Amino acid sequence: MEKTYAGARLRQLREGRSLSQAELARQLDISASYVSQLEHNTRPLTLPVLLRLTETFGVDAEFFAPQDTARLVADVREVFTDDSVGGTISPGELDELTANLPGVARTLVALHHRYREATENIAALVAEQGLEPTATQLPHEEVRDYFYQRSNHIVELDEPAERLAAELRLRPGDVRRALAARLSERHGIAVVDAGLDPGEDQHRYDPARRELRLSPTLRPGQAAFRLASQLAWLEAGETIDRLAATGPFTGGTARRLARIGLANYFAGALVLPYRTFLGVAQRYRYDIARLCDHFGVGFETVCHRLSTLQRPGTRGVPFSFVRVDRAGNISKRQSATGFHFSRAGGSCPLWIVYEAFGSPGRILTQVAELPDGKKYFWIARTVTRGSGGHGEIGKTFAIALGCELRHARRLVYSDGIALGSAAAVTPIGMGCKVCERPACPQRAFPVIGKPLRVDENSSSLLPYPPAR
What residues does the HTH cro/C1-type domain cover (predicted)? Predict the structure, then answer.
């Protein structure tokens, strides 16, 4: 049986009740020195003591379970790869900080985010680009960070959406009709499939006329999602308002974007209810094509929903989800894993998501290893959207879904691929400006703060050779 060290959690419980170590020892019928050893992680938490703690203080045993700090470790690690911070921390110190002082670690990450945002704003002003503060993407970044910090799972919306799906008895192939009936019968809103320019809005709601117009170019799954997002405002509006109002958003633009993101989250959870979707996903071993056929929705919608299945007690595979264009711009990113998307210097060109553009419509796989040794299993495929008109520019993206390598065998895409120590691994980084791999021939930028070898009498295969 694995030993449980829970010093930080025990100290948190004791201090939250204003108890001294001696007082806690008396209540648990153990010595004060034993309490001190438990809090300093020199002795593990035994089952008898754990049972006394749960009975005395009314907490679940899960409160003392080892916390998964992989995501927090990745966040703190990014802070110390920023050369402008000027600090170094060993892997052991990193683990100790995140395990024993998670609140301090999160505060450190939050401060670094604020520092980086301020630095970027100052750089924009100094460069005299004529940018207004509202021209930056800061509001979008705030919303992305909000979902990332919650492991891309919003339980306050996921569970009500699942209950509504059960109430409406939503069935694949009949979702759009059922949602339109709910809008009409409960809320007096008519759904009209006309009146919108195919090249502009996908939907538009007219509150005065109680009319929801849908673009005729929408596929059935897309139309159902738009109906579900309208229902989100009507059925879960108070919850959405509360979440947006209490979130860490610095301005009105970010809050409005957050409200839209939360409404879209509710819509996805309504069209693909949690337990039903997770059960089918596990039965199909996360075969995305079969999930698309089963629920009548698109590849991107399925991938995005798979990245949200982190309900305590019934978790799916923890995925990271990303959408990029041909230029390498990341337009969507969500993560329930420790994989951290870089904000500086673009993404890694060796990442499979970019290779997907060379094989349109095919699912590609990759075992990727980060500089810290952590390995991930990735799948990637392109998706194309068109407005339907001749000569009009469509949209092509690459969608990637990744999980830690230890989960790969649960995916049908790992069949026939060597995993573990026998895996053919591609070394990737978080982005060229912070990547620690000196010998990468695909490097687009030098590592921030690292000296380069600039020799007039020699040349190198590496674009930015490091100083010897």
Answer: 10-64
